[in-house]
Amino acid sequence: MSEEFTFTIKRIGFNEHYRPSDSTRTTTNFANLARGEKRQENLRKTLTMINNRFNALAHWDNPEGNRYSVELDIISVDMTIHAARTGNALPLIEILKTTIVDHRTGERIEGVAGNNFSSYVRDYDFSVVLSEHNRNRTTFSVPDNFGTLHGNLFTSFVNSSTYKHHFTKPPIICISVSSSKTYHRTENRHPVLGVEYQQDDDSLTDAYFKKMGLSVRYFMPEGSVAPLAFYFFGDLLNDYTNLELISTISTMDTFQKIYRPEIYNANSVAGRAYTPRLDHSDYSLTPIVYDREERSRLGVEQGKFAEEHFIKPYKPFLDQWSERPSC
What we know:
This protein has helices spanning about 30-35, 40-55, 120-135, 150-160, 160-165, 205-210, 240-260, 260-265, 290-320, and strands at about 5-15, 70-80, 90-100, 110-120, 170-175, 185-190, 195-200, 215-220, 230, 275. By secondary structure, it is of the alpha+beta class. It has a ten-stranded mixed β-sheet.
């Protein structure tokens, strides 16, 4: 039922001159880095980390480790609801798009869409719906249909002509593994993604992303100290080139080192059985200023924004649309 909506895409380059626009979700990793007195220094160091990580993984025919660089575009997706009879576009999601620059050949190689993933509706689900559902409860539980609307909106966008016009392949979302689960190393090893980990039960995030139509696998690339969670459509190992996968790894491994150093910048490597811990004390900080407390607070504020400006005004239509089998 994608004809019920019109999706509009806006791009802005994520570079050392980047400044968040008024419509950018301030909880996103890239927006957080681009504020304050050290904004330009933060951005420059982050991009250097990404490029160094990319060249370390793409080491073939790259003896000096400087053949490639990664350019990032912030993709903001707005949605207009036809049934609302209003021209107002509603902010839906933000993702990152990578482009790989080969400085030896001068070629610009299309990378992967997705990577970082931010969503007002997801903020609403986790910061408002989940919180209110568990208020005064003695045991944690998840409400019925949790994430269904968000999942349908996301798949509607990915299946839309707008997405297909701008991107040639489905997105890959790469985020941290869950601190509530234990991951076990397998014998499977991919030349780029590294060693695979598995866990027995879906985390809440896994289940939420599954409603977006995404499968998940966990890999720890060479040079990383903890596995990353890769959410994808289709076949992660065969649908993407090595350079495409490296663009995602280098980007998101860098953000995770900054955002969750206890896990991804730890001074020891994940073992055969690994439980991520945010209270882990043996880790190193990057030289990049990141306000994690502010990020958590803003997540709640933006969840309430989504409730006020999106969920409540359009709830009857959204509920009816989301319940349709074709959604």
